[in-house]
C-alpha cells in the first residue's frame, strides 16, 4: 500500500493544500429603517441645523464684509478688502480690540485662579486628619458662591452700576463712612484709570460661581487614594492641589479657559449696561459694542460684518493658543495628543 492510499484511509490530505481566498473585508451592513432613521435624527438633523444656523450665517458675514451694504436696502457694491483696510486705520476699533484683548487675558486668568482656590478649599481644604474633606460648612459656601451665576448678566451689570454711582452709590458711601474722604462722589466708571478694571471685576464676580462648581465636580473625580497617598508622603494642602489636583483636572481648566475667553471677547452685555457710551476716552469700549454701534446706529452693516469676522478670527486664535499652551506644558496623553 502506497503512502497516498494510507493517507486516504486515515483521512489525511497529502500534497499541497489549497489556499483560501483572502477575505475582501467586512461585509457591508444592510441599510435598515432603524439604522437610517437613527442617522438622520441624531446625525443628519443636528448637522443640518449647525450648517444652516452657524456656518451659513458666518459665510454670509464674510461675504457682506467685502461690501458697502447699509443693512436697510437691497443694493450694495462689492469693495473687496476695503473694509478690512479701513479697520486697520480706525483708531476707535483698534482701541476696542485692545480693550477686548485685555479683558480676554485678565478675566479668564483671575476667574480660574479664584474658582480653583474656592473649589480646592471646599473639596480637599479641610482638616489634615481623617478622611479627606473640605472646610466646614462647604455646602453653604457652594450655594453662596453660585448665587451670582443664576442672576442674568444684565441684572448683575445694572446692580453694580448703581453701587458704583458717584453720588448715591453704596461703595462710595461705605468708603466715605470709613474715613476715606477722597472717595466722596468718586466716579469709578467715569475715570480712565478705573473704568476698565471695574468692568473686569463685575464680569469676574458673575462668573466665579459657575466655574467653581465645574472644578468641584472635576476634583470629586480625583481618586481619594491618590490624595491620601500624597498626604502620607508629607504633601500639604497647597502641594497636593498644585502637584496632584490641578494636573489631573487640566482638561477641565482648558475648557474653562476657552469658554471664559469667548465670553470675555464678547462681554457686550456687561460693558453696554455699565458704560453704554464706551467709557471715558473709549476706555471700556469692546469690539462687540463697536460692531453694534456701527451696524445699528451708523447703518454700516458691511463695515460691521468686517468687525465680526475679525472678532471671530481672534476668538479662534485664542482657542488655538490655549490648546497649544496646554499641549506644550504637558497636557497630552500617552499617544502624544493634547
From TrEMBL:
InterPro entries: ABC_transporter_permease, MetI-like, MetI-like_sf
A GO cellular component annotation in the UniProt record: plasma membrane
Location in or out of the cell: Cell membrane
Pfam families, A to Z: BPD_transp_1
Database matches in PANTHER family: ABC TRANSPORTER PERMEASE PROTEIN, DIACETYLCHITOBIOSE UPTAKE SYSTEM PERMEASE PROTEIN NGCF
Domain ABC transmembrane type-1: 97-322
Membrane topology: Multi-pass membrane protein
Domain of life the protein comes from: Bacteria
UniProt GO BP: transmembrane transport
KW Aminoacyl-tRNA synthetase (keyword) present: no
Protein encoded by which gene: ugpA_8
Transmembrane segments: 35-59, 103-127, 139-160, 198-219, 256-274, 301-328
The name this protein goes by in its record: sn-glycerol-3-phosphate transport system permease protein UgpA
Keyword entries, A-Z: Cell membrane, Membrane, Transmembrane, Transmembrane helix, Transport
Protein family: Belongs to the binding-protein-dependent transport system permease family.
Main subcellular localisation: membrane
Amino acid at each position: 500500500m502506497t503512502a497516498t492510499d494510507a493517507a486516504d484511509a486515515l483521512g489525511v490530505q497529502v500534497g499541497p493544500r489549497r489556499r483560501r481566498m483572502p477575505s475582501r473585508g467586512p461585509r457591508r451592513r444592510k441599510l435598515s429603517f432603524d439604522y437610517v432613521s437613527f442617522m438622520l435624527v441624531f446625525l443628519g438633523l443636528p448637522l443640518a441645523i449647525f450648517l444652516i444656523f452657524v456656518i451659513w450665517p458666518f459665510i454670509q458675514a464674510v461675504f457682506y464684509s467685502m461690501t458697502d451694504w447699509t443693512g436697510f436696502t437691497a443694493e450694495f457694491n462689492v469693495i473687496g478688502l476695503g473694509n478690512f483696510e479701513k479697520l486697520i486705520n480706525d483708531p476707535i476699533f483698534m482701541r476696542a480690540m485692545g480693550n477686548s484683548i485685555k479683558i480676554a487675558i485678565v478675566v479668564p486668568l483671575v476667574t480660574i485662579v479664584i474658582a480653583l482656590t474656592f473649589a480646592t478649599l471646599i473639596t480637599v481644604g479641610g482638616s489634615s486628619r481623617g478622611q479627606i474633606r473640605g472646610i466646614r460648612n462647604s455646602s453653604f459656601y457652594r450655594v453662596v458662591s453660585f448665587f451670582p451665576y443664576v442672576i442674568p448678566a444684565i441684572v448683575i451689570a445694572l446692580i453694580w452700576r448703581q453701587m458704583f454711582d458717584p453720588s448715591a452709590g453704596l461703595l462710595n458711601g461705605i468708603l466715605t463712612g470709613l474715613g476715606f474722604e477722597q472717595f466722596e462722589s468718586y466716579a469709578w466708571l467715569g475715570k480712565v484709570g478705573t473704568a476698565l478694571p471695574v468692568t473686569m471685576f463685575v464680569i469676574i464676580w458673575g462668573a466665579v460661581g459657575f466655574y467653581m462648581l465645574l472644578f468641584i465636580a472635576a476634583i470629586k473625580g480625583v481618586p481619594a487614594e491618590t490624595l491620601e497617598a500624597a498626604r502620607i508622603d508629607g504633601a500639604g494642602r497647597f502641594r497636593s492641589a498644585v502637584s496632584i489636583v490641578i494636573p489631573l483636572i487640566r482638561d477641565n481648566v482648558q475648557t474653562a479657559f476657552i469658554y471664559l475667553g469667548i465670553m470675555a471677547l464678547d462681554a457686550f452685555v456687561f460693558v453696554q449696561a455699565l458704560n453704554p457710551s464706551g467709557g471715558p476716552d473709549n476706555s471700556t469700549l469692546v469690539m462687540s459694542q463697536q460692531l453694534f454701534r456701527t451696524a445699528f446706529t451708523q447703518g454700516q452693516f458691511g463695515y460691521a460684518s468686517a468687525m465680526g469676522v475679525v472678532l471671530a478670527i481672534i476668538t479662534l486664535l485664542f482657542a488655538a493658543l490655549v490648546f497649544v499652551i496646554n499641549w506644550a506644558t504637558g497636557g497630552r496623553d500617552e499617544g502624544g495628543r493634547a
